[in-house]
């Protein structure tokens, strides 16, 4: 209910029903998060802090005062801050170019920058080592070695998260009406002033959302830190993993999990506080009308610089992988790919690698469907804010991003272990776990757009007698169609490369593609390594194709459904 | 505006169409589980591999189908089994090695069962007699591997023992794994404890550190990126000719080659046989198993000649029964380790955490 405007009463009074609808919208996401997130995590934390039926809160003090904990927390925080700053610095020009320029191959480029985001870290890590490590490419050219350094971690974080900024910020930027800025210019504002007064405030929520996501991702970074940082660097996430999975020290793990919760909650509060007053009603236009071919040396130069940056940071590591997948035992060729076709009979994967692609796609589609339904309902419920309760719900949806995968996975193991909820070995658990990570993306992508829809349109529709559902269908949905597609793409991509949660769920042997890659990498011999590289290349292709198809779905004019 | 709406609905329809299809492919899974106790579930770690034909033979012999649940490395798999002991995920657990055995036994996750044919297992592998809560299934050695070409080119004899590794001529050549995060890394550390005793191993590691040992997080990185002797490592331009790996790595390295060498002396890598630690893997019947009978049948099968002869080429480990023959790849290119280091499981369980802590503060600081 909109409280700060005079209430417009439609012909029939349907106030209570509207509240009912909103509560109904929230019910599904709340049930989803309660069952598949809050309950398992609470179970594992309780197991750590409760022994013989008594709470042991003394442990909290012990762990917190341990200097090692402070050390880990400090490293986690500053590397996340540095990674976020670096990612924004490098990716914002990319978001601008994607939003405002029209050039051949733009759809492909959008797909390419998203591929790193979905690559399993174990794959990206070895590509980065080949680039930055001893006698890697940089070492041979300029004698630069960055392995086991913080720089390698930061660059890998930019590599993974570039797409987050480009897609979140670029998606909104593309829909901002350039004529508003032009109008300001006509009225005498300078180019920079016009941008600062018109575009920047409109973009701020999206930039903040992207920055928050990148910070959360890097704050809870696991694979990149482990592979590239060497054993000397540990984030909170790595430490929680060690305490839980390796040492089975549940009390310490529980305390660290709570610390991570507190940090993530603080982040979300800051985020809510900065964004609250800045979400203005925007005039959104069709993205295809705002992009033009670059004009003049400056614009072409910017485009070239962005492309060069993408080539060096994102394409080069991927190219190393592709190169290695063809670099067979006897020169370049398809030897490893041929081996993939016959790898199904030695029992390493239990299935032919082709099947792992099918598994990944099937899980991905299921996870996307769940994430879009849950996230879409949540975003719809959050569109009209109603004080503190809803804001709390908003934060709740983000919490899974700040929770260690091992905590959730082990939580599943001990919480969902009795019928009718014994889902531990059910195939549905994998897409559910992946959707947990996907939902926040869906919400974050759709919310800025949903909130930017002018409420007067809705009111007008209501005056004309449309039911709330119909208002949403006729007014909101057309405007958020694009955001929905982007959100679905994100959810799908996240699920394809998702390795963290998937890997903590023991399941009947139908491994996803990333799990298969990790298994092959874990076995000696050139053939296994080469097959891992070949599978990774296929994963990249599958992701790129899936993302391209999504771009097509979005601009397909024949949709006569 | 309307076209946008239609497009969005189109996307939704595509998704909606996909869901029933998925439900169908999931449904086949569920169907298998309700076949009247004819399924036996094996819980294990990601490295557990068995040839499909061997499993088919088990089904043909007993009528039980095997469902496999794999998750994580050995340590994590054991910890997950401990956490879920009140509602076990399956009937049989495979993959507790001697570094984890005490933790598993102390937490009481296994029910006793004496496997048929246990008398064919060599004495050195037997643990937990007379209670028989676990059965030995395979064994393997963790040893330093060397890059043969490097030592030939540098006219240097490859190291053979722990003492050799701290000599100046081998300075800056060895890469090992983090004992805190990697199972071969831990095994190599335990080997030095076995060799130099409770008070000597720390000094040994100080010497090793002064001699330029490199520590990376996991085996993959050590072997595929840093080691100059593996095919993958050569491509990644690894420059450490010594790596902590397995005694079975040289045969595995040969297996992928187009033109295999004629003899072990021509294989790309070799094993420093005086630097080994012996790991034995055990399996056991989970307490509270839904299908205990099927579980017992599966445990019997794990000691059968058929399964035992399958482990070398599928998991690169050696059988534990005396009547199993090794494949040619192993007899030809495998190393014979005569005096590996071992430690009592109880001793490992008691000291493991403090050893790893001490190791970290020596090597990683």
Report on this model:
The complex is a heterodimer of chains A (561) and B (365). Chain A is mostly helical and 561 residues long. Chain A folds into two domains: 246 residues, Orthogonal Bundle (MetI-like fold), CATH 1.10.3720.10; 273 residues, MetI-like (MetI-like fold, Orthogonal Bundle), CATH 1.10.3720.10. Helices cover 73% and strands 2% of the residues of chain A. Chain A has 23 helices and five strands. In chain A, the strands form two sheets. Chain A has a two-stranded antiparallel sheet. The two termini of chain A are 33 Å apart. Chain B is an alpha/beta fold and 365 residues long. In chain B, helix 7 links the parallel strand 6 and strand 7. The longest helix of chain B is centred in the first third of the chain and has 32 residues. Chain B is 45% helix and 18% strand. Chain B has 14 helices and ten strands. Chain B has two domains: 154 residues, 3-Layer(aba) Sandwich (D-Maltodextrin-Binding Protein, domain 2); 167 residues, Periplasmic binding protein-like II (D-Maltodextrin-Binding Protein, domain 2, 3-Layer(aba) Sandwich), CATH 3.40.190. In chain B, strands 1, 2, 3, 4, 5, 6, 7, 8, 9 and 10 form a ten-stranded mixed sheet that branches. Chain B starts with a helix and ends with a helix. At the A-B interface, helix 5, helix 11, helix 15, helix 17 and helix 20 of A face helix 1, strand 2, helix 3, helix 8 and helix 9 of B.
